[in-house]
Design a protein that fits this description.
The protein has three helices and no strands. The protein is mainly alpha-helical and 126 residues long. Helix 1 runs antiparallel to helix 2 (46-68). The longest helix has 35 residues, at 76-110.
Length: 126
């Protein structure tokens, strides 16, 4: 970390800050994971379980981005890194969504049954 009002870099303080960030992220991620497993094993209604698991997953993504990848809104470099991550996530969502659409459309076409009751790709029986 750079000491305030100076240009001096303190590697000891930087290392302690990094270890503290990783330890905090690990503990919070562990608690969120245990909480998700506990919700599955509980007697809650299914909709509450799914909602809790989704909320825990979103929180865990935020913990990973902040504590492990060190993405913050405080300085310019972190903003650029965050935009890069968001762009990558957007591209992956487009590719996954496109793949899902193409495969579901293909599945519908493969299982389409013609008017005679036979599949489209079957040869007529003798």
């Amino acid at each position: 970390m750079i000491k305030p009002n100076t240009e001096e870099f303190d590697p000891q303080e930087s290392a302690a800050s990094e270890v503290k960030s990783y330890a905090t992220g690990f503990v919070v991620s562990l608690l969120l994971t245990v909480g998700a497993f506990a919700s599955v094993l509980s007697d809650l209604p299914t909709t509450w379980k799914v909602a809790f698991i989704c909320a825990a997953a979103l929180l865990q993504i935020m913990v990973h981005l902040r504590n492990f990848l060190h993405l913050r809104f405080s300085d310019r470099q972190s903003r650029e890194d965050l935009l890069l991550v968001l762009f990558s996530v957007g591209l992956l969502a487009i590719m996954a969504g496109g793949t899902w659409y193409i495969m579901s459309d293909l599945s519908g076409r493969m299982h389409h049954v013609g008017g005679s009751g036979m599949g489209m790709h079957h040869a007529p029986a003798d």
